[in-house]
Amino acid sequence: MDRKQNREGFSSTLAVFFATLGSAVGLGNIWKFPYLTGQNGGGAFILVYLLCVTLIGMPVMISEFFIGRKARKNAVGAIHGIRPDQPIWKSIGYMGVAASFFIMFFYSAVAGWVYSYVFKAIKGDFGGLSSLSVEEAAKMTADQFGATAGGAFSPMLWQAIVLIVVSAILVAGVKNGIERITKTLMPVLFALIIICDIRALTLPGAREGLSFLFHVDFTKLTAPVILAALGLAFFKLSLGMGTMITYGSYFTNETNLISTSAKVAISDTAVSMLAGISIFPVVFTFGLEPGQGPGLLFNTIPLVFSKIPFGGLLLVAFFVLTGIAATTAMLSLVEVPVAYFTEEKNISRNKAVLLTSAIILLIGIATVHPMSVFGNTVIAGKSFFDLFDFISSNVLLPFGGLLISLLAGHFADISSLRRELSNNDRLNNGNLIGLFLFILKYITPILVLIVFLNSIDIIKL
Ligand code: PHE
Prior knowledge:
mainly alpha; transmembrane; Transporter; transport; YocR/YhdH-like
């Protein structure tokens, strides 16, 4: 057990890996990656996304691990610890706390849809699908989704249930909970998505679905598409807002920061790709619209399982596991403000959890559902749901990531960076560290800046 200042920490390198992966894998892979790929034209978007993960995401992730483990504090305190003489850097931490709220406002609502699908699947609401024609089945799933997301009361109730579950886990003592849940369930989720894939690949639309995913058409690469890919890379890997700083602060001294980031990025990307492979064949088999947006997951997965043995049971299992993946990701999202309030504002952990969840619930309920008080308010052409997503993923996270890469690459004490990266063993990771430092200093910040400059008129809103 790794302790400093009596803080709790993850118990082993394996636990570190699974907890970090538990933060990364969530609705981002199963819900957001497929629908953004659908909206942004497929293969070319994925290619840019992969470049963003490697050249921007991984270096920022390693920087966050470094900052967190070196300081062993919450995001704001840890960043301050790297350059106590320049308080301006603390603003990255504040931005992170803000981003965490913005993301949770809509993320907890989508998690609510997932929880409610567990119950729909258990009740057998999708049971009749197998006897319907292709068009009828597609219409029935679309109606189900419309009723789930558009209800006057139930989506708000589900959002509240999600937040109660998240708060209860956070109050009940964290690390053990997070460790145990992620270690057992991540592999099961992986296996289940592979079953979905096998089924999807035997559908008549499989060829078209795969070609949508893997055919790279460079004419699709416009500024908004590139900005969306960058934003997704940050969102996916939980970067740019202090989550990985906070988790890094719980890492063991033996954890290898570079290889952990590579393993997390590869596994996370694999889950997203597998999710895409199970969804797009369905889209083309059932004549659905690939660019339909946030309903995509919910309009396709029930169809995947509609005509296979034990399909009903597998559908329940799929949404249970997606719900769990969303929940472990939310634990890490909420941990940013909670650790900040407890360590910097001296509020008890329980009060911090309650305060954070109450704010998310009140604002979330009032804004992100079509039937909410502000559900139809449009600001700069966007609903609150879209606005929260855009501001966090496409602005705050990449901007936070840019500053984090500058802080670690140009303003931190280089010898302590090298020490953290080699775990105090000068022979460890020698060449890799050189390569990493080069990318971190010169490539990562410049690429983020280029994407930002290219997108100025989109970001102005
Ligand atoms: N990475 C999570 C997902 O893909 C979301 C997340 C974003 C979690 C930022 C923490 C911080 O679902």
